[in-house]
Amino acid sequence: MSVSGNILKMKSKLADVVEYNLPLSDEFVAMNPLLGKKIRMEFDGVINCIATGEKIKKSYNQGYSYKAFITLPECDMCIVKPELCHYAKGTCRDPKWGEENCLQPHIVYLALSSNVKIGITRKRQVPTRWIDQGATQALPILEVKDRLTAGLIEVEIAKNYSDRTDWRKMLKGEVDPLEGDLISMRDDIYEGFGHLIDEMHAHDLDESIVNISYPILELPKKVTSLSFDKKAKIEGTLLGIKGQYLILDTGVINMRKHQGYKIDFSWS
After folding, report:
1. What tens digit of pLDDT does each residue of 91-121 get?
2. Domain-by-domain residue ranges, the chain?
3. Is this prediction's pTM over 0.90?
4. For 193-220, how does the pLDDT look when each residue is reduced to its tens digit (9 = 90+)?
């Protein structure tokens, strides 16, 4: 079987084991049934901007043309650093987009991947955001009115708690044994940052921990990164899927990083 098309970020659905589908243009490949099978992905040299569809030589910010990268609101610096949101200054690249995506309820959360990290996401992106990061546990701790508020809170809490994930350790399933449980850490944050939480009019959340299991037959002992920029044909037995990575017996590939790349995907 084979399907051809431009890669887009894998779609995920939380279930007993996360269910993945890989979009290739207008087609969707159900990935879970391919575990244990040999897959082949061949890049034909064509990259299309995921925003405009135009043919480009190089992609920026996981799938955009340079023009899109410097003009679209979803590529602005404040997406990476939400505390820098400049909507109120009247300089948002697209105010309507900002209202629909940034001036919406956001969740501040704790997640366990390679370590416990503090993070934020739009409320409607729960639990997709956690799955994309390869988290095995997540706990929403605060709800706020917009992205800027969430970002300002995250910056302060990150002075005491990590806001980064080591993607190699995440893929290998390595977790720092000194990490505490999420409920205790949430309670510590409520106590230590109570003044900030009140000042930002954030709402405490009494939520349960969300446990996330991934379709994995075997975790890699050594992480070898694969890329279509270095090798046009990537193949191997699919051993697992975690975050936006395919884990093969020949290495791992971040599919989101290659959005817009046109490939022929086949399996046997």
Report:
1. 999 999 999 999 999 999 999 998 899 999 9
2. 2-58+215-267, 71-211
3. yes
4. 999 999 999 999 999 999 999 999 999 9
